[in-house]
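seq as requested:
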Amino acid sequence: MATAPVIENFQFQAETAQLLNLMIHSLYTQREIFLRELVSNASDALDRFRFEALTNTGLVPAGHEYEIRLKPDLTARTLTVSDTGIGMSRQELIDHIGTIARSGTQELRKRVKESQSAEALAELIGQFGVGFYSAFMVSDRVVIVTRRAGEASATRWESTGNGAYTLADAEKPNPGTDITLHLKKPDAENGIEDYTDRWKLAMIVHKYSDFIAYPIIYQGPAQEPGEDDTKEIKIETKTLNSMKPIWTRGRSEVSDSDYKDFYKHLSSDMTEPLKVLPLKAEGAFEYEALLFIPSHAPYDLFYHAAESGLKLYARRVMVMDKCEELLPRYLRFIKGVVDSSDLPLNISRQRLQQDRHISQIRKWLTRKVLDTLAEMKEKEPDKYLTFWGEFGKAMKEGVGSDYDNKDKLLPLLLFESSNDPAKLSTLKEYVERMKPEQSEIFYLTGESRKVIENSPHLEAPKQRSYEVLFLSEPVDELLVQSLYEFEGHKLKSVTKGKVHLGTEEERKAQDEQIKKKEEEYSAFLQASQKKLDQYIKQIRLSTRLVASPACLVTEEHEYSPHLERLLQKGKGAGAKQRRIMELNPDHPLICRLYERFQANAEDLVVGDSMEILVDLALLSEGSEVADPVRLNQLTMDLLQKIV
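struct tokens:
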């Protein structure tokens, strides 16, 4: 007598239980996407099996067929999605189905709360890698029977989505996974259709999964009950998808909607791509590619640990799901597939880095993407602005890392500037607007446009109508470390060193005037330096100030204030830099302090006021004051003396 299998009870991980509740009760529209997700997972399992079989042929049973089957049972009201893929072990079931070990779980819940439309909610499911749980949108109970390739035993997983699941040993003759959905009753008002209907299943497969590289086979009744009750219902097997890889077809054979559907399947992004790039190279190396520029940046675009890369195929066999070596890191938002007949099927990640075919493909794809963006910028400026708003920060990363394509990248960069509060500018457009006597491209970094616009460092350039680029993103600090010049014009920060404006004669006149003033103010500057030596390494008079009494500047080789603040937020940041303080000799406040100093070199009001000016200069650039308590005390003491 056979022994009944031992059933073990488990609780879902807390995040998984929350997600299941979200699936069942919140994401109630477009429930048909459950099949898209299950078929996509099945396709991935088949890919992994084929890949492992390249180096371990013993895994594959004799006569094995790589396929996906949809098996409806109209009487039991079940739908089974079966695949002959890699399968899962008992521990893998716990790891992959009972747990969500992804940093995106919290982000998913946040995005769902923010989303309003049905389309936006449906889009989120695939994006965050939680597609299996969508099965509970249409099911009261889900049963998985799976056997890992290379293992003799199978495992049965079962749950009603109530926060718990069971595991038990099972029998399965071959590797693969069977997912049986015990379907909810059809309810048109709540968007639950009859997912045992062969026409409905065929429609969903054609809509979402037509380009899956494996046959999706319908195995079910050839007629609906009641069509002819006198005849026996026959079981029909029919392939529902075309299977021919879309990237192998000629451009004339594929419609725009086909490309869009494939992109949605490939990326789990239900929005349409911004641009489609069907590519084919022939010659010494032959390869085909189908790339997509998304319309929106993924939530993890700037997560350091986020995986990216194109699907890599060798002679129509997928050898890598996410091959990062095919494009430089700054183009990680590009989605697509690459298929080469020159690559070995068992290529490893280690070999990828040295393989000359991969190197050649990388150069070719990068050039094609950048050429496409240049064409978009010229012929479709509005679309390019959309692209830049989503991916501009990533593109800026390339200037410091992709030296081979730097000349292609620079014309693609867009910046805010003082020229127009609404319109972005290229470097070339800036150069065309430069004054005849101007030799440098001026820029200013800061946390936001508002902070930059109110910086005292802009006063002199603004008075003389010199344009200044506004660099308000953290990546801009890295950009200017690599972007030294453009078309022979050096980039110059208006917060570093000395800024020269006007003609050569005007500069000489200013320098002579300042030199005379500094000789006159010499004792005052020395006394102030002694007072502020802890924070300031030099005090000098300025030509860059118009309305403000003082500002802080750095040497040419030092960090900008914005970069220093960013580093202070990170680990291992060093001590704060001692800066140069520049005073406006024409400002009434500085003139009055100088007069008080002349009358009494020991006047405490002068020293205290200079301390306050340092803190005010820090605040004006968005930096924190060194000692807020001290600033408060000095201000209160000074007010009491004045009032």
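Residues 447 and 473 are 7 Å apart (CA to CA).
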